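Worked example 3 (structure in, sequence out).
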């Protein structure tokens, strides 16, 4: 393990944040809908994301949008992981990659939700968030891939049975966030330091961003007005 202080790498972290943000700004839902001679922002809920794409263009297009948006969050994370995996912060005895990866992930999510290329009116960040977790968890331990698959399955089952797409997505984000909290706790239980605290703050910000982007959906659930996601209709589209 090579040792570095934060002062040695701060400009790399700024570069990671900027590049990840602009990657996040690229909206695949808008690109795909433009290829279909329309603008998804003028259809349905107006949200340029997976759920609205599924409702307007069918399940296959929705899945394609989901996977592309997941890659948008996951690819920057995996690149950052391979850059920093053999480095640790001086006098902290913790690897740098969790901090760097979640920094990258957060800014990719911010770019998706608040893209400068779309006047800061983007999607809700769920697929990009799922991509961040899907890539970073197996980097910590390959067995965590089964944890990722389990959480994704639970999310799909929740949406299928409750018909609440937005709420189901937040359930998935919550499960991913709590799982990472627990993993960090057991991996670094004897390393309570600024890196450990900062990474957990990044996790909280990740959850906050997606919940805040879904605030209207949450309110609609409590008011009994949340729009149902009917899987059978999506399959026929």
């Amino acid at each position: 393990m090579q040792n570095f202080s934060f002062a040695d790498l701060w400009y790399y972290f700024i570069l990671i944040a900027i590049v990840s943000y602009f990657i996040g700004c690229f909206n695949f839902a808008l690109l795909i809908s433009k290829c279909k001679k329309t603008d998804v922002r003028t259809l349905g809920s107006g949200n340029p994301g997976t759920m609205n794409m599924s409702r307007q263009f069918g399940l296959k297009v929705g899945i394609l949008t989901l996977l592309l948006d997941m890659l948008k969050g996951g690819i920057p994370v995996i690149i950052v992981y391979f850059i920093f995996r053999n480095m640790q912060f001086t006098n902290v005895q913790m690897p740098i990659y969790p901090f760097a990866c979640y920094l990258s992930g957060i800014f990719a999510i911010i770019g998706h939700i608040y893209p400068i290329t779309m006047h800061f009116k983007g999607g809700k960040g769920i697929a990009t968030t799922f991509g961040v977790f899907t890539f970073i968890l197996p980097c910590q331990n390959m067995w965590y891939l089964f944890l990722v698959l389990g959480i994704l399955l639970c999310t799909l089952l929740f949406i299928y049975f409750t018909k609440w797409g937005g709420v189901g997505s937040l359930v998935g984000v919550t499960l991913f966030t709590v799982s990472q909290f627990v993993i960090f706790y057991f991996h670094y239980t004897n390393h309570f330091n600024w890196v450990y605290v900062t990474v957990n703050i990044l996790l909280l910000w990740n959850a906050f961003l997606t919940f805040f982007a879904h605030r209207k959906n949450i309110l609609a659930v409590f008011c009994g007005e949340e729009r149902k996601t009917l899987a059978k209709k999506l399959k026929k589209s």
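Notes: Strands lie at 2-4, 87-89. The first strand starts at residue 2 and ends at 4.
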